Amino acid sequence: MNYLKGSNKSSIWSALQKTRGSLIGHISEAFKSSDTLETLWDDVEDILLASDIGFDTTNHIIQELKNKSSKSIHQDHSFRFDELRTILTEMVNIAPTQLTLDRVGPSIILMVGVNGVGKTTSIAKLTSLLLQRNKTVLIGAGDTYRAAAISQLQSWATALNVDMVSHQIGSDPSAVAFDTIRATRSRNMDVAIIDTAGRLHGKANLIEELKKIYRTSKKAMHGGSLSVMLTVDASTGQNGLAQASHFQNQVHCDSIFLSKLDGTSKGGIVFPIVRELSLPISFVGTGEHHTDIAPFDPHKFVEGLFENTSL
């Protein structure tokens, strides 16, 4: 196995601008202004909850800070602020966080997610990054319900100069997946990225269809690897966490593409997603262009949150 590594620090730093100001910036001010530990813990808790990190993960962070503070000979806020950075880094540092590409066969990626999360654009970004890494890519238009979905994906395929497998509107999306994998194998290509219909995670019939696509894809595999990548819109906060939880329970997602990180102050959603679901984030969308993508690096992510922010 090998991994698609590398990270554009400047793009991540820029994409985190809103989150850095609303989350770490406010926490930094709380550390500076709180006169007592009780006030500090209450202030930090309020900021974390307001940033849509959620009760469970917020409680975990506060308890970790309290424990580390009570066990240390250092009793200044500067030390506690540094400990917060360490806690957040450890929380998101689970492996693997990068896309695994198989050496002995094609790597097949099923892209799933609800409507409106930026799934099609995320496919284009991932394709662009793979092409930069000298990988050959084939796209499968598995969202057969909407003509606009197929035409939008075809526009991206044309712009990126890659081929796309598609069927007519209303056809069986499992057949698209099967044909895409077969074409990937026959052409000896490195990666296939298969779109699926945007679906509400609460719609049982659509989830069952997604399971069928996965089963069909597994049957079509003869060597190589099959993974499910869930696209989550960073701006949806706790709603995104709920979506990720349901998809993970139903179809066992392997990783997350976190889209629209640049347009939100809720980038802290990374922490509950990773901690509560043990689901790694592979990539983040850092802008509107197809090249605005960065492989997720937990250290660079937290560094981007804390950079230029100190006591």
List keywords for this structure.
eight-stranded mixed sheet; alpha/beta; 311 residues; two-stranded antiparallel sheet
Structure explained in plain terms:
The structure is a single chain. The chain has 12 helices and 10 strands. Strand 8, helix 11 and strand 9 form a beta-alpha-beta unit. The N and C termini lie far apart (43 Å). The model has no long low-confidence stretch (mean pLDDT 88).
Mean model confidence by pLDDT: 88
Q: How many E-type strands?
A: 10
Distance between the amino and carboxyl termini: 43 Å
Write the element-wise H/E pattern from the N-terminal end onward: EHHHHHEEHEHEHEHEHEHEEH
Percent of residues in beta strands?
Answer: 15-25%
